[in-house]
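Supplementary Methods S3. Complex input for the protoporphyrin IX containing FE-bound model.
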Amino acid sequence: MEHSDIEIFNDSLARCLRGEQFFQRFYELFLASSPEVREKFQQTDFRKQRRMLQSSFYMLVEYVALGWPECQAYLERIAAAHGKHGRDIPPHLYDLWLDCLLRAVRERDELYSKEVEGAWRFMMGAGITFLKLRYERPLVNQAPG
Ligand code: HEM
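Predicted complex, serialized as structure tokens:
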């Protein structure tokens, strides 16, 4: 059920954030996973990046749970930034991204289980589908209404 997936995800994220440097560990794993990934993050300020990624998770929750238009508009901006005419993040890198994220969760959430994994897959799947669908043609430049 969607609602409980959101709750399970929120609780797991909170546990991960209580512990040691969750997002730092995620980027460590992600950068180690492929030279293509390292190449994309050559100029990145990771302190800022970790904060932004954390905020985007909260936005994603609001979007999935409540469908707020402000959150959708935010995700459209993120999609444009990742799209072909932005950072050009090819869709296959999202699978790697999710693998690394789930590894970091498994390491940091002491209550990790199949159910927790499913909740992360459900939530992140929503974000990944959103970004992948807009890779070729982001919607951000379309006039509202
Ligand atoms: C659902 C998955 C993802 C989410 C939610 C996400 C989220 C974000 C956010 C919030 C930012 C900051 C945008 C800004 O500057 O306003 C960002 C930047 C970025 N993301 Fe992602 N991202 C995702 C997947 C990926 C993947 C798979 C890659 C592959 C390499 C990637 C590469 C980047 C790069 C290169 C930047 C710019 C970093 C810089 O400023 O140097 N992202 N991402």
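The two ends are 32 Å apart (CA to CA). Residues 2-133 form a domain with the Globin-like fold (CATH 1.10.490.10).
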